Amino acid sequence: MNTTGTTETETPEFTITRTFDAPRDLVWQAWTDEAEMAQWLHPFGVSTDGVSQDLAVGGRYRYTMTNTETGETFPTGGEYLEIEPKTRLVFTWGDPDAPAADAPVITLTFTELGAQTELVFHLSGIDGKPGDGWVYDGWDEALTNFGRHLAGESLG
What we know:
Oligomer: single chain
Family: Belongs to the AHA1 family.
Radius of gyration: 15 Å
Strand order of the largest sheet: 1-2-8-7-6-5-4-3
Organism: Pseudoclavibacter endophyticus
InterPro entries: ASHA1/2-like_C (IPR013538), START-like_dom_sf (IPR023393)
CATH superfamily: START domain
Protein name: SRPBCC domain-containing protein
């Protein structure tokens, strides 16, 4: 796993680019399979009990993260806006019941690089930067968990 090209702009958005040592088919599956998502879709110190989704344009997804120390829960979800299998996935993120027009939007781009896959994660509609201890850091940690999951590590 390798991290490159973090950018910031004056608009409320940020991008994190990672290259994973896994073929694009496996990266796509790990991002879209409910059971696999439940393994890695959370920052450090948090667990995800389960993920439910309707992987279709206009379909919704939902999961609840639980802080492993305090027990505080964070219901999260959104709506799928665009799906190009194994290439591009666009969805809203945040309050699972929020209307799509009011929610931040995540765009994922999956690029095959031989046996590796570059994943460009772009979040628009909310600020984030390294060290914010919140959105950017949370997604950065989730992407680290994603890479560990792809490498076959137990996130226990």
